[in-house]
Design brief:
about 325 residues, alpha/beta, about 40% helix, binds iron/sulfur cluster
Amino acid sequence: MKQTNLSIFIPHYGCPNCCSFCNQRTISGTKTPPTAEEVFAILSEQQKVLSEKEMCAEIAFFGGSFTAIDREYMTALLKTAQHFTTRYPAQFCGIRCSTRPDCISREILDILREYGMTTIELGAQSMNDTVLSSNRRGHTAEDVRKAAALIKEYGFTLGLQMMTGLFGDKPEYCIETAREFIALGADCVRIYPTVILKDTYLGELYEQQKYSSFGFDETVDLCAELLMMFDAAGIPVIRLGLHSGGDFDGEILGGVYHPALREITEGRIMFGRMKKAMEESGKTRFRIYTDRRNISLISGHKKENKLKLGELGYSFSITQEDGTDLRIEALP
Ligand code: SF4
Protein backbone atom coordinates (compact mmCIF):
# COMPACT_ATOMS: atom_id res chain seq x y z
CA MET A 1 0.00 0.00 0.00
CA LYS A 2 1.31 3.43 -0.96
CA GLN A 3 2.17 5.67 1.99
CA THR A 4 2.01 9.44 2.16
CA ASN A 5 1.93 12.32 4.64
CA LEU A 6 -1.21 14.27 5.29
CA SER A 7 0.17 17.65 6.31
CA ILE A 8 -1.69 19.89 8.71
CA PHE A 9 -0.02 23.25 9.22
CA ILE A 10 0.10 24.72 12.68
CA PRO A 11 1.59 28.09 11.75
CA HIS A 12 3.85 29.90 14.20
CA TYR A 13 1.45 29.10 16.98
CA GLY A 14 2.99 29.54 20.41
CA CYS A 15 6.48 30.01 19.07
CA PRO A 16 8.44 32.50 21.20
CA ASN A 17 11.36 32.49 18.76
CA CYS A 18 12.13 34.58 15.76
CA CYS A 19 14.53 32.59 13.59
CA SER A 20 16.31 34.60 10.93
CA PHE A 21 14.63 32.84 8.02
CA CYS A 22 11.16 32.22 9.34
CA ASN A 23 7.91 33.67 8.26
CA GLN A 24 5.57 30.79 8.99
CA ARG A 25 2.44 32.57 7.87
CA THR A 26 3.92 33.09 4.43
CA ILE A 27 5.11 29.52 4.05
CA SER A 28 1.94 27.80 5.11
CA GLY A 29 -0.29 30.24 3.27
CA THR A 30 -2.63 30.37 6.23
CA LYS A 31 -2.80 32.65 9.22
CA THR A 32 -5.01 30.91 11.74
CA PRO A 33 -4.13 27.55 13.31
CA PRO A 34 -6.85 24.97 12.67
CA THR A 35 -9.08 23.99 15.58
CA ALA A 36 -9.36 20.34 16.61
CA GLU A 37 -12.85 20.36 15.05
CA GLU A 38 -11.45 21.60 11.76
CA VAL A 39 -8.75 18.91 11.86
CA PHE A 40 -11.48 16.35 12.53
CA ALA A 41 -13.34 17.53 9.42
CA ILE A 42 -10.17 17.39 7.28
CA LEU A 43 -9.36 13.87 8.43
CA SER A 44 -12.95 12.66 7.92
CA GLU A 45 -12.83 13.88 4.34
CA GLN A 46 -9.36 12.50 3.72
CA GLN A 47 -10.29 9.13 5.16
CA LYS A 48 -12.66 8.59 2.24
CA VAL A 49 -10.11 9.82 -0.32
CA LEU A 50 -7.35 7.59 1.08
CA SER A 51 -9.70 4.62 1.18
CA GLU A 52 -10.66 5.09 -2.48
CA LYS A 53 -7.02 5.44 -3.49
CA GLU A 54 -6.01 2.50 -1.30
CA MET A 55 -3.39 4.65 0.40
CA CYS A 56 -2.38 5.18 4.00
CA ALA A 57 -1.05 8.39 5.51
CA GLU A 58 0.78 9.61 8.55
CA ILE A 59 -1.08 12.58 10.00
CA ALA A 60 1.64 15.23 9.99
CA PHE A 61 1.53 18.29 12.23
CA PHE A 62 4.00 20.57 10.51
CA GLY A 63 4.77 24.24 10.31
CA GLY A 64 5.61 25.31 13.82
CA SER A 65 7.03 23.86 16.98
CA PHE A 66 4.37 21.31 17.73
CA THR A 67 5.58 20.35 21.19
CA ALA A 68 5.82 24.00 22.24
CA ILE A 69 2.26 25.01 21.45
CA ASP A 70 -0.39 25.45 24.11
CA ARG A 71 -0.64 22.09 25.89
CA GLU A 72 -4.42 21.92 25.81
CA TYR A 73 -4.48 22.67 22.09
CA MET A 74 -1.71 20.16 21.38
CA THR A 75 -3.57 17.46 23.32
CA ALA A 76 -6.82 18.21 21.49
CA LEU A 77 -5.04 17.81 18.14
CA LEU A 78 -3.40 14.58 19.26
CA LYS A 79 -6.68 13.17 20.53
CA THR A 80 -8.30 13.92 17.20
CA ALA A 81 -5.44 12.31 15.29
CA GLN A 82 -5.48 9.27 17.56
CA HIS A 83 -9.20 8.84 16.97
CA PHE A 84 -8.46 8.35 13.27
CA THR A 85 -5.36 6.17 13.64
CA THR A 86 -7.32 3.88 16.00
CA ARG A 87 -10.55 3.80 14.03
CA TYR A 88 -9.09 3.74 10.51
CA PRO A 89 -5.67 2.11 10.80
CA ALA A 90 -5.73 1.13 7.11
CA GLN A 91 -5.90 4.80 6.09
CA PHE A 92 -3.99 6.46 8.94
CA CYS A 93 -0.81 4.59 9.78
CA GLY A 94 0.72 7.02 12.26
CA ILE A 95 1.18 10.56 13.48
CA ARG A 96 4.23 12.74 12.93
CA CYS A 97 5.20 16.22 14.00
CA SER A 98 8.03 18.67 13.58
CA THR A 99 9.44 20.65 16.44
CA ARG A 100 12.47 22.40 17.86
CA PRO A 101 15.29 20.43 19.50
CA ASP A 102 14.94 22.40 22.73
CA CYS A 103 11.25 21.52 22.99
CA ILE A 104 11.84 17.83 23.59
CA SER A 105 11.82 16.32 27.07
CA ARG A 106 10.86 13.00 28.66
CA GLU A 107 7.59 14.53 29.78
CA ILE A 108 6.71 15.58 26.21
CA LEU A 109 7.78 12.25 24.74
CA ASP A 110 5.61 10.41 27.27
CA ILE A 111 2.61 12.42 26.07
CA LEU A 112 3.41 11.89 22.40
CA ARG A 113 3.80 8.16 22.96
CA GLU A 114 0.48 7.98 24.79
CA TYR A 115 -1.31 9.40 21.74
CA GLY A 116 0.46 7.14 19.24
CA MET A 117 2.98 9.54 17.72
CA THR A 118 5.26 7.59 15.39
CA THR A 119 7.74 10.07 13.90
CA ILE A 120 9.32 13.21 15.31
CA GLU A 121 11.23 15.58 13.06
CA LEU A 122 13.63 18.06 14.57
CA GLY A 123 14.37 21.36 12.88
CA ALA A 124 18.09 21.23 13.59
CA GLN A 125 19.04 23.44 10.61
CA SER A 126 22.78 23.30 11.35
CA MET A 127 25.14 21.56 13.74
CA ASN A 128 27.40 24.60 13.80
CA ASP A 129 26.82 26.73 16.90
CA THR A 130 27.96 29.97 15.25
CA VAL A 131 25.51 29.46 12.39
CA LEU A 132 22.75 28.65 14.88
CA SER A 133 23.34 31.76 16.98
CA SER A 134 23.85 34.02 13.93
CA ASN A 135 20.43 32.94 12.74
CA ARG A 136 18.75 33.47 16.10
CA ARG A 137 17.76 29.87 16.49
CA GLY A 138 17.87 30.00 20.27
CA HIS A 139 19.23 26.45 20.63
CA THR A 140 22.61 24.79 20.26
CA ALA A 141 23.96 21.78 18.43
CA GLU A 142 24.15 20.02 21.79
CA ASP A 143 20.37 20.48 22.16
CA VAL A 144 19.98 18.61 18.86
CA ARG A 145 22.25 15.79 20.04
CA LYS A 146 20.34 15.41 23.32
CA ALA A 147 16.89 15.56 21.72
CA ALA A 148 17.86 13.11 18.96
CA ALA A 149 19.24 10.62 21.51
CA LEU A 150 16.06 10.85 23.60
CA ILE A 151 13.79 10.38 20.57
CA LYS A 152 15.77 7.29 19.55
CA GLU A 153 15.71 5.97 23.12
CA TYR A 154 11.89 6.16 23.11
CA GLY A 155 11.79 4.27 19.83
CA PHE A 156 10.25 7.01 17.66
CA THR A 157 11.32 7.40 14.06
CA LEU A 158 13.75 10.33 14.00
CA GLY A 159 13.67 12.91 11.22
CA LEU A 160 16.30 15.64 11.05
CA GLN A 161 15.96 18.79 9.00
CA MET A 162 18.88 20.93 7.85
CA MET A 163 19.24 24.15 5.93
CA THR A 164 22.02 25.25 3.62
CA GLY A 165 23.25 28.78 3.04
CA LEU A 166 22.09 30.44 6.24
CA PHE A 167 23.74 33.65 7.43
CA GLY A 168 27.39 32.81 8.22
CA ASP A 169 27.09 29.31 6.77
CA LYS A 170 29.75 27.57 4.67
CA PRO A 171 29.43 24.43 2.50
CA GLU A 172 31.88 22.61 4.81
CA TYR A 173 29.60 23.33 7.80
CA CYS A 174 26.72 21.71 5.90
CA ILE A 175 28.83 18.64 5.16
CA GLU A 176 29.72 18.46 8.85
CA THR A 177 26.03 18.77 9.76
CA ALA A 178 25.22 15.84 7.47
CA ARG A 179 28.00 13.77 9.09
CA GLU A 180 26.51 14.47 12.52
CA PHE A 181 22.99 13.61 11.33
CA ILE A 182 24.28 10.23 10.16
CA ALA A 183 26.08 9.68 13.47
CA LEU A 184 22.91 10.61 15.39
CA GLY A 185 21.04 7.80 13.64
CA ALA A 186 18.56 9.86 11.60
CA ASP A 187 15.90 7.67 9.99
CA CYS A 188 15.05 10.32 7.42
CA VAL A 189 16.28 13.79 6.50
CA ARG A 190 14.98 16.94 4.87
CA ILE A 191 17.29 19.46 3.23
CA TYR A 192 16.13 23.02 2.77
CA PRO A 193 18.36 25.46 0.89
CA THR A 194 17.67 28.88 2.38
CA VAL A 195 14.95 30.92 0.75
CA ILE A 196 15.16 34.57 1.79
CA LEU A 197 11.69 35.86 2.55
CA LYS A 198 10.30 39.31 3.07
CA ASP A 199 9.68 40.35 6.68
CA THR A 200 12.47 38.22 8.10
CA TYR A 201 15.87 39.03 9.61
CA LEU A 202 17.55 37.42 6.59
CA GLY A 203 15.41 39.60 4.36
CA GLU A 204 16.68 42.67 6.21
CA LEU A 205 20.30 41.55 5.89
CA TYR A 206 19.78 40.80 2.22
CA GLU A 207 18.32 44.23 1.53
CA GLN A 208 21.23 45.82 3.38
CA GLN A 209 23.55 43.74 1.15
CA LYS A 210 25.11 42.06 4.17
CA TYR A 211 24.03 38.57 3.15
CA SER A 212 23.04 36.68 0.01
CA SER A 213 23.08 32.89 0.79
CA PHE A 214 24.82 30.37 -1.51
CA GLY A 215 24.41 30.66 -5.29
CA PHE A 216 22.20 28.30 -7.25
CA ASP A 217 24.98 26.20 -8.79
CA GLU A 218 26.89 26.07 -5.53
CA THR A 219 23.74 24.86 -3.78
CA VAL A 220 23.09 22.18 -6.39
CA ASP A 221 26.69 20.90 -6.07
CA LEU A 222 26.45 20.93 -2.28
CA CYS A 223 23.07 19.21 -2.22
CA ALA A 224 24.38 16.58 -4.65
CA GLU A 225 27.15 15.82 -2.16
CA LEU A 226 24.66 15.72 0.72
CA LEU A 227 22.33 13.37 -1.17
CA MET A 228 25.23 11.04 -1.90
CA MET A 229 26.33 11.06 1.75
CA PHE A 230 22.86 10.20 3.03
CA ASP A 231 22.35 7.64 0.29
CA ALA A 232 25.61 5.91 1.22
CA ALA A 233 24.41 5.83 4.85
CA GLY A 234 21.05 4.35 3.82
CA ILE A 235 19.10 7.40 5.05
CA PRO A 236 16.26 8.58 2.79
CA VAL A 237 16.14 12.30 2.00
CA ILE A 238 12.38 12.77 2.01
CA ARG A 239 12.48 16.39 0.88
CA LEU A 240 14.95 18.59 -0.93
CA GLY A 241 13.89 22.21 -1.25
CA LEU A 242 11.09 24.18 0.25
CA HIS A 243 7.60 23.10 -0.62
CA SER A 244 5.15 25.96 -0.73
CA GLY A 245 1.55 25.34 0.10
CA GLY A 246 0.37 28.90 -0.30
CA ASP A 247 0.95 32.34 -1.67
CA PHE A 248 4.71 32.20 -1.43
CA ASP A 249 6.47 33.21 -4.63
CA GLY A 250 5.78 36.93 -4.21
CA GLU A 251 7.46 36.80 -0.79
CA ILE A 252 10.85 35.61 -2.03
CA LEU A 253 13.72 38.09 -2.04
CA GLY A 254 16.58 35.72 -2.77
CA GLY A 255 18.22 32.42 -1.93
CA VAL A 256 17.50 29.17 -3.73
CA TYR A 257 13.98 28.15 -4.63
CA HIS A 258 13.26 25.98 -7.66
CA PRO A 259 10.34 23.58 -8.05
CA ALA A 260 12.62 21.06 -9.83
CA LEU A 261 15.53 21.36 -7.40
CA ARG A 262 15.64 17.66 -6.61
CA GLU A 263 15.57 16.63 -10.25
CA ILE A 264 18.31 19.13 -11.08
CA THR A 265 20.44 17.90 -8.18
CA GLU A 266 20.01 14.24 -9.06
CA GLY A 267 20.85 15.12 -12.66
CA ARG A 268 24.05 16.74 -11.39
CA ILE A 269 24.99 13.54 -9.58
CA MET A 270 24.39 11.60 -12.78
CA PHE A 271 26.53 14.09 -14.71
CA GLY A 272 29.45 13.44 -12.35
CA ARG A 273 29.14 9.68 -12.75
CA MET A 274 28.97 9.87 -16.55
CA LYS A 275 31.83 12.35 -16.86
CA LYS A 276 34.09 10.21 -14.69
CA ALA A 277 33.33 7.04 -16.68
CA MET A 278 33.82 8.82 -20.01
CA GLU A 279 37.13 10.37 -18.93
CA GLU A 280 38.42 7.04 -17.69
CA SER A 281 37.50 5.28 -20.95
CA GLY A 282 39.65 7.57 -23.09
CA LYS A 283 36.91 7.47 -25.78
CA THR A 284 34.48 10.13 -26.99
CA ARG A 285 31.37 8.26 -28.26
CA PHE A 286 29.14 6.19 -26.02
CA ARG A 287 25.97 4.22 -25.72
CA ILE A 288 24.35 4.48 -22.30
CA TYR A 289 22.06 1.72 -21.04
CA THR A 290 19.71 2.59 -18.23
CA ASP A 291 16.38 1.98 -16.58
CA ARG A 292 13.44 4.08 -17.79
CA ARG A 293 13.34 6.05 -14.50
CA ASN A 294 16.91 7.37 -15.09
CA ILE A 295 16.51 8.59 -18.66
CA SER A 296 15.61 12.18 -17.78
CA LEU A 297 18.42 12.32 -15.19
CA ILE A 298 20.95 11.25 -17.83
CA SER A 299 19.88 13.99 -20.22
CA GLY A 300 19.66 16.39 -17.30
CA HIS A 301 17.23 19.22 -16.62
CA LYS A 302 16.60 20.96 -19.95
CA LYS A 303 19.20 18.58 -21.47
CA GLU A 304 21.90 20.25 -19.38
CA ASN A 305 24.02 17.08 -19.05
CA LYS A 306 23.93 16.35 -22.75
CA LEU A 307 25.00 19.92 -23.55
CA LYS A 308 27.77 20.04 -20.94
CA LEU A 309 29.22 16.68 -21.94
CA GLY A 310 28.99 17.81 -25.58
CA GLU A 311 31.07 20.86 -24.72
CA LEU A 312 33.67 18.50 -23.26
CA GLY A 313 33.75 16.57 -26.56
CA TYR A 314 31.57 13.60 -25.56
CA SER A 315 28.48 12.36 -27.35
CA PHE A 316 26.10 9.59 -26.37
CA SER A 317 22.83 7.88 -27.15
CA ILE A 318 20.55 6.31 -24.57
CA THR A 319 19.13 2.79 -24.73
CA GLN A 320 16.45 1.83 -22.26
CA GLU A 321 17.37 -1.32 -20.33
CA ASP A 322 15.00 -1.84 -17.40
CA GLY A 323 16.69 -2.88 -14.19
CA THR A 324 20.03 -1.31 -15.19
CA ASP A 325 21.12 1.69 -13.15
CA LEU A 326 23.85 2.94 -15.49
CA ARG A 327 26.02 1.09 -17.99
CA ILE A 328 28.22 3.05 -20.31
CA GLU A 329 29.59 1.37 -23.42
CA ALA A 330 32.35 3.13 -25.32
CA LEU A 331 31.91 3.03 -29.09
CA PRO A 332 34.81 2.68 -31.50
S1 SF4 B 1 11.19 27.98 15.93
FE1 SF4 B 1 10.19 27.36 14.05
S2 SF4 B 1 8.23 28.46 14.02
FE2 SF4 B 1 9.51 29.44 15.57
S3 SF4 B 1 10.49 31.16 14.50
FE3 SF4 B 1 11.89 29.41 14.40
S4 SF4 B 1 11.42 28.36 12.48
FE4 SF4 B 1 9.71 29.75 12.95
